[in-house]
Amino acid sequence: MNKIVLGAFALAFPLAALAAPENYTIDPNHTYAYFEVEHLGVSHQRGRFEHLSGKFTLDRAAKSGSVELNIETATVSSGDNVKGSRPRTLDDHLKTADFFNVAEFPRMSFKSTGVKFAGDNPAEIAGTLTLLGVTKPVTLKVERWVCKDNPMSKKPMCGGNASGSVKRTDFGMKYGVPAIGDDVLLWVSIEGYKD
């Protein structure tokens, strides 16, 4: 009888291990937060932040997860970083109190409050974005999600793309509205390695 119990336990143990939450650490070399805003009613201007850190957790059996991203605001990049004869570049201006105010708020963050799954993968992430000392809800739609071993390092990894939108005036960023749009499209390309 003891052998049967031990055998059943041995069979069930790997299944329990597979159902456990899995923790991942963000790969800062392949994770970026992007933004897009309308400029003067003519075009959409884009930028990104060059440095992020954070973690995420997945539990496919329980259909749950969490994510936390920390974004260094001083790493904002619009592609305009050569001053020439001008007093400042667009990147310089984005770092001032008119926009991201990096001297007073060197970091912005996203923390999930809930994750909805479609099958085995996250489909929607509800959370809060903290920017300029203000915290507001934002929902990110996951547009792609893949988990597999990195083909070169063979380490288990997961990642994908997610997008959402906010009104920048909700965070107190009012400079240039309405000539510079209030609605800001956000999207994240994220990759992480299993801890």
User: How far from one another are the termini?
Assistant: 38 Å
The CATH first-level class comes to Mainly Beta
Mean pLDDT: 92
Order of helices and strands: HEEEEEEHEEEEE
CATH topology: Lipocalin
Number of helices: 2
- What best-fitting shape do the alpha-carbon axes yield? globular
Strand content: over 45%
Q: Label the structural class.
A: mainly beta
Name the helicity range: 10-25%
Gross CATH architecture: Beta Barrel
- Determine the CATH superfamily: Lipid/polyisoprenoid-binding, YceI-like
- Main sheet attributes: strand count, strand direction, barrel closure: 8 strands, antiparallel, barrel
- From the alpha-carbon coordinates, what is the Rg to the nearest angstrom? 21 Å
Number of spatially distinct domains: 1
Q: Order of strands across the biggest sheet?
A: 1-4-5-7-8-9-10-11
Counted beta strands: 11
Q: Low-confidence parts, pLDDT < 50 over ≥5 residues?
A: 8-17
